Amino acid sequence: WTITDEQREYYVNQFRTMQTDVRGVICGGIAKEFFEKSRLPVQELSRIWQLSDVNRDGALSLEEFCTAMHLVVLRRNDIDLPDTLPPSLMPYLPLTNPGQYHPPPPLRGHSRSLQMSLLPLICHLVEQ
């Protein structure tokens, strides 16, 4: 389940084709279009999304994107998807409660809650 340095470099380069700011996110519609190129069944892509979008914001950070990419690559190599995300693929370090996560730091002085509240609007505008 571990992502090698070579794989991570490839995944980061793929992320940058859609989002030049590695601290930014890729909106759901853009990510969907990208991952559909894998030709995996929609049901499997949906499961990969559920596993990868750890903070359930409808977008993928770089860390979440790397997780999703790795699961796509594993699936394309006939490796079954896990029921739960293995610790080696967790985009954020777990706290004492396994259901919690460390979100990325806020961007450009704005609070994370403000960014997350604006994210659906921004993604909608970008996808139009």
From TrEMBL:
One MF annotation (Gene Ontology) recorded for this entry: calcium ion binding
Domain EF-hand, residue spans: 40-75
Lineage top rank: taxon: Eukaryota
A cellular-component GO term for this protein: plasma membrane
Residue ranges annotated for the EH domain, each copy included: 7-91
Protein name, UniProt field: EF-hand domain-containing protein
Mitochondrion listed as a keyword: no
Keywords in alphabetical order: Calcium
Organism whose genome encodes this protein: Capitella teleta (Polychaete worm)
Record has Amino-acid biosynthesis as a keyword: no
GO BP, one annotated term: endocytosis
InterPro entries the UniProt entry points to: EF-hand-dom_pair, EF_Hand_1_Ca_BS, EF_hand_dom, EH_dom
